Amino acid sequence: MLLAIIANLVLELISEARISAIRSLLSVVEYFTNLYFTRDIKCRVYIPTPGPKPIFRSSIPTCDVRILGTLITLRTTIGIRPAPQPPYKGFSVQNLALAIKGLRCCVDVDQGHRECSIVGQVVRQVDEVLAQVDRLDIWNSCWGESAEDSHEEEQRWRHGTEFKFAFIRDRT
Amino acid sequence: MLARFKGKVPDRLMAIPPDDDLIRYTKYSKDLYSKEKRKARHSEKEETQEGGVNIMPSFTAHPLASFSRFFFYFSSSGFCTLNFSLSSAVFLLSLKCKPLLYLVYLIKIAIRPLGTLLENSVGSLGAKFAQYSPIRCFHMKVSHLALAVRVGDLSGEALYLLKMPSPRGHLTVLGASLSPLQLTPTPATTLQSQALSTVLYPTLLPASTSISLSSHPASTLVPLKLNMNPTNEIDPLGDVIAIFPTTSTKFRVSSRILSLASPVFRAMFSPHSLRGVALASATALVEVEFPDGSPRALEAIFNVLHFRHDCVSENVSYDFLYEIALVVHKYDLVDAVGLWGEAWLRGAGGGGKGLFAMYVFGDREGFRKECQRAILQSHDYDCNLNGGSEKGKETEMEEENGLDSNLVPTRVLGKIYTSPSDATCNYS
To answer: 20 to 30 Å CA-CA from B406: which of B76, B158, B352, B362?
Structure first.
């Protein structure tokens, strides 16, 4: 009886941690997609001209459009558009993270738009999710001495991790 | 070396060549066989002229030859040639005897070098064998010589020559205990056998080569005594016989040792329990049934508890480890088995069973890593305990590429992997 309880507890924790990690990874892509859906220009090179002067077509930055297109394509190719629902059957954290990190942004590097690429930010966020998985200690959660700390961390996972994209907000 | 066994070994076994000869025989077996081959051709001609010339050590096909593609051949010089097909599914070959009495000589692997062959076949155990050069003889505790050969895709023949100076050896093949092993010298006669020559020396002798074999009728051989379910006397002076409802395997153990090792056994054999009363009043052995314990797991644990460490193998299979962990958990034997837990865990696989074993033996770090692996790699953690099954292994094999083919199409995978690390590209 005790054995079954232990096994169920461990497996439940693993399952919840997996679901939470996948949810976090999906939220990374969703966040950037929503960000580039807005009308604000995120291109770092583009300097808006003051006044109601006509905007020449050639001067409109295409970074935002390309990145948005890349994100939508990525979501389609890895099968997260429309967003899957828990328990995310068929998805694994590792594979999803790798697929998201494989995002390619076609920005005009020659024109100085290298900084407009969001690849580095996406990779950092994905690595942060993986690091949280790495820090998770289910042993502690079940039987460890520092069960309280672990429980706190566990609670974060249970309710889904909120990622603070502070540097993105600063930019926007 | 053989002098050490004088007085213990029957005279017929003393005909075994000395070590140096065997080493040379092993080392230069190819040359030797090439010479034999040439000799054979030469003597074939002579035979046709004069007749009755023996060119090879005589071999006798044993009645067990049809036993699951396991072939034994006993030569007149005391060698036992064990020949088994790697294309068969699973073999368990274990030799149980007093350690250091047996010298195992590897003569020849027909298809590939031993290390590669076994490494491919049996994983970690093969790696252990790979430490030994195929051309060297090696002393080995025979209790450790447990070959769990799992071969799916390999084909070919492996040939071992086992020299067994001890007449008290127990050869266990696929659970059948053959005791004692009789090495019987038999008169050799000439026999043409294309099939056997192909089996024994496929790379060295052509199929059409004729070799000298014993055609001694099987009925006159000393038969191997099949003793399938003996009472394994783990403690010859033990007062308890452990029995199992599913098998007729029995173990004779000491209730005192078990009581010292485990609080569960202590309660079981205490004077206040029924069994304790029976033990106190019994004049004969008391049988204690272990209804849900695995016999092989309990045997391993009993051996550990009774200090028969040479009879316990470090290399245990995934399922065996799980069975051991169940017994250890049930009878609270973690402290009693001591370092054996660590040794067994070295071969622990993943999945729920591996997790359970790590939990039982207190391997915190391994448990944490396995949990992380489960979180990262599982596609749907459906709370089953069969993570180490074949299906699980296949999934792991698929996941070696990093991305799941079900999740991401192959053409997309190729694009992802070929993309530059910077993940930016020029646009013109």
So the answer is: B352
